[in-house]
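Input chain follows. Return structure tokens only.
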Amino acid sequence: MTSAPRVSRKGLLAAIAAFMVLLSALSISAPPAGAAESRRWPELSQYWPDGRNGGPREYAFHDVSTDTRNYHLNHCPRGYLCVAAGEGDGQHTVFILYYCTSRSLYYFHDRGAVTNNQYGSWASVMYEDHSPYTLIESNNRSVSIPWDPIYYLDPCI
């Protein structure tokens, strides 16, 4: 009968302790010089890129130039609300929204714009207390919005 080699309990505990110290050191070390910070694109709650219950899709375009942003705002599809927000680096995110669900806004900063090309519905952008900042008529014209005080968007009121 062969016996397995015995491992000293002290040796095993020392190895585990050394491994834990190594993990701790790795978790608190700084990122390498020149490593990019993680960036957050503007986001919306209740966004349906695959459609809703078989309905039309909604779209988000990230890292678009000012010219592309303006193209999307000036060519907002009929029946949609187009929303543009800056990303803080000269690039923009544009949302093409179809559904009338109220949305919460995340990481929307500085100035942006909204074009309402829906079928007769007004859109509303609102402060944190849900009071309206402005109403946007369905006239396919771009309206400039300062996003910093805005927390909510209601595409259809």
